Predict the 3D structure of the following.
Amino acid sequence: MPFETEIRPVPGSLADTDADLVAIPVRATDAGPEAVTAAAGDLDARLPAPLAELVAHYELTGKPGETAQFAADLGRGLVRVALLGTGSGDPADLRTAGAALARLAKGRTKAATGIARLPFPGDGAESVTAFTEGALLASYRFSLATADKGPAPVGGIELVCGDGDKPVEAVRRGTALARATALARDLINTPSAEKDPEWLAQRAREIAAGAGLEVEVWDEADLERGGFGAILAVGQGSARPPRMVRLSYTPENADRHVVLVGKGITFDTGGLSLKPNDNMKLMKTDMSGSAVVLGVLSALAELGSRTRVTGLIAVAENSVSGSAQRPGDVLTTYGGRTVEVLNTDAEGRLVMADALDYAVAELAPDQLVDVATLTGAAKVALGTGIGALFATDDGLAEALRSAGERAGEPLWRMPLTEEYRDALESPVADLANIATKSDYGHVGATEAALFLREFTGGLPWAHLDIAGPGRSMSEQGVLTKGGTAFATRTLLRWLA
């Protein structure tokens, strides 16, 4: 759903604004918390006490996202004034501050803040971009209710700044990053009754048309002719047949070619290896990887990326019926490799195997990256705040880790332990989709990554398992309940 909040730089000071919430930045310094008076103009004289005394009275530290509120007459009647902690002013702190301000301002018409006047590390552009991301993502909401539940997001946030230094480009960039993330969240949060594979393919067509991308969709007949046996096998239990989608972004003078592969399971019952009900309730979000890929492709041109990017999303509904694949079945992937299916709930790696095979055989990329809500084991290992990163190339791994740090989407590199590979051997096929023995215990996340590696053709490859941070059960920071679209902003920073 489009953002209801608009962020825009305006010249002047906080004393000039007509906003009904005015946020004065308080930064953390070695000497203690300090209100940024450069943004306030003559506001200090209209407050109930000098700014320094108010900071001390509310025992503020300048910690990012910290707030204190009071009423004051700024010359046009009482308005709400907030002291807003901004930490050191670096991007991570400003992203947190932006989210805090957006949550504080819900239900109001307009907020104004002086964060653009902070003494930023560096030129401050990335900090303003991060503030914009934080404020917009905290304002995101998705609802199919017939009436609003809770206060609406603030209508606008003004960044007061000097006449000649309006950070227009930084705000534009932050808005583009947040918009791509919100698009992915909308796809993830759409109920699966509506969101079947063809629905997702149609959304891809619309995104391609809006972003100037080339698009191709394989329907079930195309998949059969093309030999995409794994996608077909996963989808054969559903009355709503599978799809594969390719989107292509081709800028002039591209510096490399990257293929992104996204898992697109529009609903996951587990198949005949049925999930418990409590786990199944979350499974409309099991196509998060494909949503992330679509969000990334939607914003590459706007962000001026010089990287040629092909997005592949392998889309199926993993359902239960008389035609569903069975444990013990053997399927043949696009590249001709046979896989024994020992657990039909390990289906994401199957559809992605076909897409990876296709990428290696037909697209000749310089690098391959896949993203998926793939294993509960990754969530057990890293919790819900960190994504698992597996990679065959150290340079690629470090580039993605660094991009994740800058995006506020932390990634932790996990091992591709060679000793675990033998567990995927099958007595009747080239390999099995889960371990056939457990000499080293349950190593689900690494096991899944090792399975995927079999289909990467030796190319530099990275796998992002976002099963933990891909969903949020609470409203905090930049997150709202539901799909988070984790890794969208990481991949955009890496590519753009």
